[in-house]
Specification:
CATH class: Alpha Beta
Strand content: 15-25%
CATH superfamily: DsrEFH-like
Helix content: 40-55%
Number of strands: 5
Strand order of the largest sheet: 4-3-2-1-5
Number of domains: 1
Largest sheet: 5 strands, parallel
CATH architecture: 3-Layer(aba) Sandwich
Oligomer: single chain
Length: 130
């Protein structure tokens, strides 16, 4: 595996954020620098309001995760941030369109930036898109 991993999350489907958090966690703990770019509808999953209410779009697996009180995607990202090199960025264009501020996002988000800046960060990285 490369020393760098870039994960782009564009879907608001809960399961896609969850699998991204699982991959990112394992990679970060293994010493890989991981950069997450949250864009398009996926931004809704990173809003404090939706996280507090567990207001996500998901399928049967999401319902099982909630029912069993298993770790949520944002908890997995938080653990990975404590154990390894993981950064989470939200697309500034989407933030502008939705008229949201950084304070509207959950605390695990490091910053917001544009796609061009993220392309610079992900140069030379293996890339996964959800």
């Amino acid at each position: 595996m490369s020393e760098k991993l870039a994960i782009i999350i564009a879907s608001e489907e809960y399961e896609k954020s969850h699998v991204a958090s699982m991959i990112a966690s394992v990679a970060a703990v293994s010493g890989v620098d991981v950069s997450i770019f949250v864009t398009m509808n996926a931004v809704y999953n990173f809003l404090k309001e939706n996280v507090e209410k567990k207001n996500f779009t998901g399928g049967k697996l999401y319902e099982q995760i909630k029912e069993k009180k298993a770790a949520m995607f944002y908890e997995l990202f938080d653990s990975a941030k404590m154990l390894g090199g993981l950064k989470i960025y939200v697309c500034s264009m989407v933030m502008d369109i939705l008229k949201i501020e950084k304070d509207d996002l959950i605390d695990i988000v490091d910053d917001h930036l544009g796609l061009a800046a993220f392309l610079g960060i992900m140069e030379g990285a293996e890339t996964i898109t959800f």
